[in-house]
Amino acid sequence: MRYRLLGRTGLRVSELFLGAMTYREATPEVRRVFDLYAESGGNVVDTASMYGDSEDVVGELLQGRRDRFVLATKYTPTRDRTDLNAAGNHRKNLVLSLERSLRRLRTDYIDLLWVHVWDRHTPIEETMRALDDVVRSGKVLYVGISDAPAWVVSRADTLAEWRGWTPFAGLQVPYSLLRRDIERELLPMARALGISVAAWGVLAHGVLSGRYAAPGAPAGRVSPESISERDRAGVRVVLEVAGELGVTAAQLAIAWALRRGVHPILGTSGAEQLKDDLGACDLARELPEEAMRRLESAVEFDLGFPGDFVGAADRSPDIYGDALPLLDGR
């Protein structure tokens, strides 16, 4: 396992994150997963206030080794469906959600607190100031945001910069070879602002692992009948390339995401599956560019406006003149 810096901070985070969304109790298998991840050099564990008993389980697993891990959790979803103020990104819900997470996780600080989803009912100024306050209190060290438009994240980051508040260090979004929406706005924004990107769904709910490719494959998180021909075509190429390279389809799909510069979140509850997934780290450093091109050309993806328009303008002498090819740099 190798490491990257989290956003514009000095915090070292492993290239693969461990997702704890499905943890309901600290079973022997869950402990094996956790230990294998740690022994492989992984140091980021990601959970959330709304993931049932996950925070309690993670708190138990971290006992005696808490400070060796970057512990990440999220707030926003409701703590009480009958109370409007028990949900959202406002100060009251942040404070109460954080206190509950600290108790569940058996810790006195959170390394990375994510805003779970953009709350359009709360001014972003209130959210950013409240987040800065919990950082200054020492209960949170870094902050990030999940599932929000690029303009919201960039505005929030600019407000933080101008007012001396804590900026977002991370962005958490869905991303896979079959779902590349973030390449339109979110990924370019994160790169420009120096924000790390954590990606969930890199295996597209198991579709990219090839588990549904065989005729008569049983349903899992996905019904085989619901998989589109577009996605099936992508899976076929993933299986072809994986076979040629002598790796599994899951390793290849995760390695592709790693090569795109994101941190895949591995949501596995089995040690054998995790052991296989971890092989993506070495594969990502060896993956040929030709294989990347084959994978990306297998699945139709339209960048859309303004990305495609601006991209064409960047290469146009009508916009920048005949000497454009002589320009080096950005």
Automatic annotation (TrEMBL):
Domain NADP-dependent oxidoreductase: 16-299
Keyword Oxidoreductase listed: yes
GO CC terms, sorted: cytosol
Keyword line: Oxidoreductase
A Pfam family matched in the record: Aldo_ket_red
Classification via SUPFAM superfamilies: NAD(P)-linked oxidoreductase
GO MF: oxidoreductase activity
Name of the protein described by the UniProt record: Aldo/keto reductase
Organism for this UniProt entry: [Actinomadura] parvosata subsp. kistnae
